[in-house]
Amino acid sequence: MTRLDAPIVAPLVARALIESDAEPIQAMFESDPAYFELTQGAPPGPAELQSLVTALPPDGDRGYEDKFLFILLDGEEVAGVVDLIRDYPTAATWYLGLVFLTPTQRGRGRGRAVLRGLYSWISAQGGTALRLGVVEGNARARWLYASEGFVFQASREPDPTVKRARRVLMLERSL
Ligand SMILES: CC(C)(COP(=O)(O)OP(=O)(O)OC[C@H]1O[C@@H](n2cnc3c(N)ncnc32)[C@H](O)[C@@H]1OP(=O)(O)O)[C@@H](O)C(=O)NCCC(=O)NCCS
Fold first, then answer.
1. Ligand 1 center from residue 61 Cα (angstroms)
2. Which has the closest alpha carbon to 79: 136, 122, 123, 117?
């Protein structure tokens, strides 16, 4: 594996998704209805992973060649997923569509380790900033991002056409 294949997110391991990951990832999402209630206003649907696999930014400028979806593993166990879009919304800015750890992996510094692994991996490919949206009420994620130096850029109001049930804060960090 070369340096660029996947970010180094020790103690977890990241690799590109394969078909057999679908079932355990969907099960992981279904194990945390509270997150989906918080962000989408409803529990996870049966095609939650499929929606993630096909999700691209709404403006149509980016394609699947710019989308990087990784599974995070703790040994053989599924520990989470990360979804990234390259050069969105502008060149050299990467967009973190989702970082999600399975509930038993949380609160042990692993989310922070994943973010730090992403910074290096993205920088190595010429990215100079990481942008993301966080639901206003997601206290743990907001704490993590604030303590990692992400800065508020703008807010997005709820919009059912893009499954946005709550106000989302757009944050960005230079790499
Ligand atoms: C958000 C997420 C990736 C963070 O990963 P994590 O491994 O749980 O986070 P870490 O343990 O690395 O760090 C979390 C920080 O938040 C703090 N924290 C924990 N619970 C908190 C709470 N309820 N309110 C505020 N801060 C909290 C922790 O103390 C820690 O800060 P510290 O290192 O200064 O002590 C993970 O919790 C997750 O997958 N959540 C569900 C999905 C999600 O919300 N994704 C983000 C979408 S934008």
1. 31
2. 117
